[in-house]
Amino acid sequence: MSAKADVQLKDFGSIFRLDGKVAVVTGSTSFRTLDLTVDCSLLQAGCSKVFITSRKAKACEEACEALNALGCKGTAVSVPADLARTSEIERLVKEVEKHTDRVDILLANAGATWGAGFDEHPESAFAKVMDLNVKSVFVCCQRFAPLLRKAGTHEDPSRIVITASIAGIGIGTLGANATFGYSASKAAALHLARNLAVELGPQNILTTAIAPGFFPTKMASGLMELSGGVQQLADANPNKRLGMPEDIAGTIVYLCSRAGSHVNGGHIVLDGGAVVKSSKL
């Protein structure tokens, strides 16, 4: 075999394509522009259907209307659901099954946070954050597993991608607006991804996680202001900027495409080096 043949990659032009794939994106309107960019990237990469779900029905419908106006071949479908409740997750699965008999991609993106000082941090808030960020993620993966199994093959596994955070790797926000539950929940989400990877990998389902740092989003805006504001946070980052929607969108497409078909149980940090800088000796 010639050297030229040795280095030739199979159909490299389609290595990041998701043609014909069916995706479910939970919490898909929580971050607004950021989530819409991820949903858009799935459609532009070739997904035939992207189911968008969050607690707010109007936000889901508006997101789908905007995405379907882009002219992609695929379709965005609105299925509002409150994923804090197991019955709603089960209803979501049934609604998705009305449109398809398989799911290739599950993006577990729903999440919540709470900021309060240690002595005043409410037990109820800690429980709410842990329930949505960990338990609901597990239940969602569990209930969608039959559809993911139908889609996955040894050559082309289905994907679960869990949204964690660098707060689950380093130390999260402390002080008057401490996010104890959020940090603990995101550390748990990362380890949940590892466990699911080993459990579901032999069933042709790969599980990974992403760990974003600060992105200008509705959820993060208040904490960012309390932490010095966008510019101060950007200046403190090793690459001198905060995250942009394309940073997450490109990573999601990579993990869900043929390019990421040997990534299982790991996580990708998307913070420009912030967590590395904070942990240096």
From TrEMBL:
Domain of life: Eukaryota
GO molecular function, one term: oxidoreductase activity
UniProt xrefs under InterPro entries: NAD(P)-bd_dom_sf, Sc_DH/Rdtase_CS, SDR_fam, Sec_Metab_Biosynth_SDR
UniProt keyword annotation of NADP present: yes
Keywords, alphabetical: NADP, Oxidoreductase
Family: Belongs to the short-chain dehydrogenases/reductases (SDR) family.
Descriptive protein name: Ketoreductase (KR) domain-containing protein
